[in-house]
Specification:
173 residues; mainly alpha; 10 helices; 55% helix; globular; Acyl carrier protein; ACP-like_sf
């Protein structure tokens, strides 16, 4: 385990107020592995993503208020609804959403699904959206770990996914 991954592990332990023994940490290779270990320590088994549904509803509401909702029905991707280069559309959408929207960039734009976008918005706002003392689902754990990973390493929110390896995919040593 390199310095970056050791620091990330300490941040995760601090955030969730848990201690992960060395033998357990040696088996954490992916984000999902980290979620599983933290969920075990917190005794969280609930899998439903109520937070994701709530934020997705907020996104849809913001789209409707900004006049972009009609185009959403046509596609699974964000690019069919909002023009990345149309600053007025983005500003109006973000104003109605109220939550921080992570920078997308061209690399992710054409293939960014609503689910991945919703997860990224959740991660960018995890400190406001999740009550640490009342974590009730594995999804909330996933979102917090994603947010902590981005904050510690600077990797893009859109790179975070359960199957991603900390070292191979995210470049964390």
């Amino acid at each position: 385990m390199g310095l970056d991954s050791a620091e990330l592990l300490m941040d995760v332990e601090r955030y969730f107020n848990i201690q992960i023994p060395g033998r357990e940490s040696e088996n954490i290779f992916t984000i999902q592995n980290m979620v599983d270990v933290v969920a075990t320590h917190l005794q969280v088994t609930y899998d439903r993503a109520l937070l994701r549904n709530k934020v997705f509803e907020s996104i849809m509401h913001a789209l409707a208020k900004s006049g972009r909702m009609g185009q959403w029905v046509m596609s699974d991707t964000l690019s069919s609804c909002i023009d990345l280069y149309h600053k007025e559309q983005w500003n109006t959408f973000q104003e109605y959403l109220i939550l921080s929207v992570p920078c997308i960039g061209e690399r992710y734009w054409g293939k960014l699904t609503w689910g991945a976008f919703t997860d990224a918005v959740c991660m960018a706002n995890y400190e406001e959206l999740i009550e640490r003392e009342r974590i009730s689902s594995r999804y909330e754990i996933y979102i917090a770990i994603g947010g902590l990973t981005v904050n510690k390493t600077g990797v893009a929110y859109y790179e975070i996914a359960p199957e991603k390896s900390f070292t191979d995919d995210l470049g964390i040593d």
